[in-house]
Amino acid sequence: MKRVIVIFAPTACGKTALAENIFGKGSLSCFKGMGEVVSADSQTVYRGLNIGTAKPSPEEMELLPHHLIDIVSPSVQFGAGDFFDLADAACREILSRNKFPVVVGGSGFYIRNFLMGLTSAPVCSPQVRQFIKDRLAAEGGRVLYEELCAVDPVYAAKINPNDSSRVCRALEVYHTSGMPLSSYKMPENLRPDYEFLVLVLNRAREDLYRRIDLRVDKMFEDGLEQEVAALVKNGCTKDTPAMKAIGYSEFFLDGMTLPQIKERIKLDSRHYAKKQYTYMKGIPGAVIVDADDMKKIESLIMKFCSR
C-alpha cells in the first residue's frame, strides 16, 4: 500500500516548520531525510509570489525538498483539478524513490479533493470555459460571484469571493448542466489507492491570530509592498488570477493607505483561517492534534510508517 502523510493547518500555524523539524536534513528525528513535501497551497504554485505567500526559501527547500512550488505564472488559472493531477504524480514519484510524500498545506479544498477524489460534476466544454473566462475579463470577478450567489448560494458561501478560479469553475458547471455545483455528490470515502495519515494541527484562536498578525508584520518588513509593485510592473492587475490571493488583492482596493492595507490583510487572514477548517470536516480517520505536541505527532507518524 502506498502511504502518504498529510499535515493540514491554517495559515501561520507552523506546519512547514513542523515538517522541516521532522523530515528535514537538520532534523533530530528518526525520520530525518525520509520525506519530501508536496505543497498543498493554492498560491505558492505561482512564480513571483514569495513574501505574501510565506513561500519556503531556497535554503529551506534545500533542507527539505518541496514539490509544486513556482510551477505556473501569475496569469494562469490553477484549480483543484490541476492540483489533484500534479500532487498525485508527485506522490508517486516520491514513493518510487522509497521516501514518504508529506502533503503539507492550508488549502482544505485541495487536500480534501486529493484525499477523497474529485466530484462527479461534468467536464465543461472549451467553449463554456472560454465564455466564462471572457466574462471574467469583461465584467470582473465581483459580478460573476454575485451571479454564483444567485444560482448556487450553498457553494458561494463556502468560498472566498475573490477566488475567481472556483467561482468560474462553479459557473462553468452551472452553464454546462443547469445544475449547481453543490448539488453534485462529494465522495465520502478516502481514495483506495493510497493509505493516508491525516493530521489536522490545532491552535487556540488567540494564539493563531497573534501568529497571523506577526507574520503579516514580517511580510511588510521583508518587502511585500515592493514585491507587489514588481508584479504590477510585470503586467499583473487586480484581475490576474494570482492577485486574488490574500496579501495581494488588498493592494488593489481603492483609497487605502499602506497601514490600512496591512490591517486589512490581517483581518482577511483571520477570517480565512476560520474557513480553512471547513473542508476538513468529516475526513475519515483525520486526527486533530495540538500543533506544538511534537511527541504525539512523531508517535502517530511512527505508528503509521511501521505498519
TrEMBL record:
Enumerate the SUPFAM superfamilies for this protein: P-loop containing nucleoside triphosphate hydrolases (SSF52540)
Enzyme class per UniProt: transferase
Please name the GO terms that the record assigns under molecular function.
ATP binding; tRNA dimethylallyltransferase activity
Answer yes or no on keyword Zinc-finger: no
Which UniProt keyword terms apply here? ATP-binding, Magnesium, Nucleotide-binding, Transferase, tRNA processing
Cofactor(s) recorded for this entry are: Mg(2+)
According to its UniProt record, which reaction does this protein catalyse?
adenosine(37) in tRNA + dimethylallyl diphosphate = N(6)-dimethylallyladenosine(37) in tRNA + diphosphate
Q: Where does ATP bind?
A: 9-16
EC no.? 2.5.1.75
Superkingdom of the source? Bacteria
HAMAP family, per the entry: IPP_trans
* Physiological role: Catalyzes the transfer of a dimethylallyl group onto the adenine at position 37 in tRNAs that read codons beginning with uridine, leading to the formation of N6-(dimethylallyl)adenosine (i(6)A).
Partners and quaternary state? Monomer.
Protein's UniProt name: tRNA dimethylallyltransferase
Q: Which gene encodes it?
A: miaA
